[in-house]
Amino acid sequence: MKKLTQKVCLTLLSPALVTFAVIGTVTVSQAQTSALRIVERDTATNTTTNLQVWAGRASVIDFTQTGEVVTYIRLADPSKVVFNTDAELKTNQARMIFVQPIQPLRFPGATTTPITNLFVKTLDRQGVERLYTFNIVHRSGRPTNNGITISSATPNRQLNLPVANAPTLSLADIERGLELAIRRGYTTANDPVVSKIREFIALTRNGTNVTRAAERTNLSMSVIISLAKLGQSEIPLSTQPI
Fold it and tell me: What separation in angstroms does the CA of 8 have from each of 22, 69, 139, 183, 187?
């Protein structure tokens, strides 16, 4: 095992900038990647969702939480990624799609694009059909997630923070701020603080009181607020919140 001595703190410098430093000693056996980024079903059907992929790794789109089965998939540009499902589409049992980058291929007469789109048609238990659109975004460096899970829950709910004059924040703001902090290099995906923040989000989404969730994850409210402000500071692209 590899012992890393780090100083960990989070200081809000401006609404658009969070700086991470490291405090304390932690033991890490290997770099860890967060599980799945949760996207609410109505958001996913009304906007185009970014699915991030990394070389040598597969990213999943998971519909198990909604009970939907995948009935049709259309990849616009198949020259850079391939996909498969956890069951054949004709069986009406497929609930996961795995997307993986490949070495670029050339197809006579076909056009290519750096960011292609993936269409997914699903069917739920009530017979309702839905169409989802995803942008396949190629990333370099250390992965920040293993894909997306589509949820019928609402991850965007507002938080009642036990802080005087606290701004109106949501779980989506915190998630977006965390993704931005990792992407901009303010912290690393395997930092123990990142795991704590993800645990806080999961606890709160499942109904745990904000104060209790912060206590259980040993997070200060200033860290949570700073990340949420970072998430609010960058207006998402029209296609999808990060």
Answer: 3, 43, 26, 17, 9
